[in-house]
Amino acid sequence: MDLIPVADALERLLAGVVPTSAERVALEHAAGRTLAADLAATRTQPPFSASAMDGYAVRAADLATIPRDLKIIGEAPAGHGFSGTVASGEAVRIFTGAPLPEGADTILIQENAERSGDIVKALEAPARGTYVRRAGLDFSEGDVLLKTGTTLDYRALALAAAMNHSHVSLRRRPRVAVLATGDELVEPGDVPGADQIVASNQYGIAALVEACGGVARRLGISRDDETELAGYVSEALSWDADVLVTLGGASVGDHDLVQATLGNQGMELAFWRIAMRPGKPLMAGHLGPMRVLGLPGNPVSSLVCGHLFLRPLLAALLGRPVGADRPEPAIIAAPLEPNDRRQDYLRARLHRNEAGVLVATPFTQQDSSVLSFLAAADGLVIRPPHAPALEAGDAVEVIRF
User: Fold this and answer.
1) Domain count, the chain
2) N or C: which end of the chain has fewer CB within 10 A?
3) Is the pLDDT at 323 greater than 80, yes or no?
């Protein structure tokens, strides 16, 4: 199978993806989750005209001449409105959030008034409607304020609460099984043999899944044995995983058994081998309803491909906008050599120069095993296939982490 362009691979990966089912969830457990249906206000906010300041509810017409004495006829704290009517020459002591009494149309703030017993002297004449929050200033009953696919961050969550929703319809969090493969791998904390390394990808990918709204389940490390691999695949299927992410072993070497094992279990291959660096041996397919994404074994390749492919797949499963993280324009800080036929993703630091322009400084070391530079990077510089050489200051596109 020939190398396929990154854009084509992403299109094939997302083809036919259907969002997960909806479930009703209490608002207190909804943070970071994704709406499965539009959310409309069940009430008007504020439900009544209210005072925006502490002061006195008055009639603006009474303050045509300043100073003016008004008789205080009552008090309106928040949550306890004044039940009477404000007539000419009268005022009601009012506090922030309290309903505006009948007959009043303006708030005289306490800083502009002097009180003596039941008389308040107005020292300034506010215009009609000053410091009054009119009913429906924020929203009205029936207004659709949060759309399907919205992620409930702290702002959206507060709005949903203000709309008087105690429960919301959310997408089920996609279940993602993560399987590392290879005889050379040991778990962090174990003592590696002379020819072994510590497995890191599975922890990074699992964290990426959780950060994107999914539920990650690390299956562990499978040895290069087809029977053992098949057992882990069965475990993912029995868990009803929406996605199985394998790490390593998807190439064609004598010990790369992932693709063959999955094929023997019925996986339909969507694509394999992408014209990109890092991450050429990326594989995608599906085994029944379970999507399969085979990421490369090199740590940087694995995590960069996770950012570029697993994140959009999870967004599609959650019904979120897939193209939310568009590349941004920037300039390059140092010259770059011409590119070959593969699309490059260079780890880089990003900063704004004095003119406010985004500047990308790629690390000089781009080997796909160097994880420390990925952790230190702010994003990726995209170099299209056959891109010409660049001088410092030339335009590029970047993807932020």
Assistant:
1) 4
2) N
3) no
